[in-house]
Amino acid sequence: MLVPNISLLILGVFCAFGNGYDLSKPLKPRGPLGVTLDYSLATAWPEPRDPKDNKVFRNWVWTSHIQFKNPVSEITDRQIWQIARDAWDEVQIDREQYGISDRSKPGAMTVLAWGNEMILASSQKGTSSFTYKYKNTPVLETLELCQIVWREHGPGGGETDKQHRTEGKCGELMAAHLYYSQDATVALAQRNARVATVVEKGREVKNEDPCGDPNQVSKNRRPPP
After folding, report:
1. Does any domain span residue 135?
2. Contact present, 206 and 198 (Cβ < 8 Å)
3. Is 221 inside any structural domain?
4. pLDDT for residue 142 is more than 80
5. Residue 224: what pLDDT?
6. 29-66 tens-digit pLDDT
7. Contact by Cβ (8 Å): 63, 36
């Protein structure tokens, strides 16, 4: 009687791992913040890939762009941290409706708020760095300038050439890319934007200093209840 049991076990394993994600069509976001998979990035960058092929390597980012009637200065730091956490939860909901596994789960979610607008962007998950591979963007130009400064004034005495610590895949840079894709007329540095990032560490999601100047980061570190 062992053979039937083993057969059922093999069948169960096949059912658990045999079905991959389904990108046959873009799906509507399910959460109130509108966080959704960047479908174009997942299916067409760095080159077009068959949406029905769930065995190819892809790049994953989740985003949303919200516009308010009132300025976001009326939103407290505590509320922005909560929005970042809620946006993180919406990423998981969207992953589930596509059937995307935990292996493709981003590690962070960033809120970029200015004027009466707010961009939500996850970190990038995937093998190719959009920041470094997609040329001639304001974000890459800024990173290259930082790289020059590091090379000339860093601890390596002019002999080191250090790229961004996360290969340019962090949520802050994804949010900046989205900002410039929609408004390239005003430099982001002139927006006096607020930034909040939450990062998954182990089984917890924690507030963390974003990339950039720590003096521009909210001092309210305690996660909302």
Report:
1. yes
2. yes
3. no
4. no
5. 35
6. 999 999 999 999 999 999 999 999 988 999 999 999 99
7. yes
Confidence label for 158 from pLDDT (cuts 50, 70 and 90): low
Tokens of 140: 């890459």
Question: Which residues, 6 or more positions from 8, have their beta carbon under 8 angstroms from its beta carbon?
Answer: none
- 3-state SS track over 148-159: HHHHHHCCCCCC
Residue 150: burial class (beta carbons within 10 Å; 0-12, 13-18, 19+):
middle
| Within a domain: 206 | yes
- H-helix segments, the chain: 2-17, 39-44, 77-98, 130-133, 138-153, 171-182
Domain boundaries, position 163: 22-216
Q: How confident is the model over 188-203, as pLDDT tens digits?
A: 989 999 999 999 998 8
Angstrom distance (rounded) from CA 193 to CA 166: 22
Nearest to 29 by CA among 58, 1, 2, 65: 65
| pTM of structure | 0.80
118 falls within a domain: yes
Give me the number of domains the chain comprises. Answer: 1
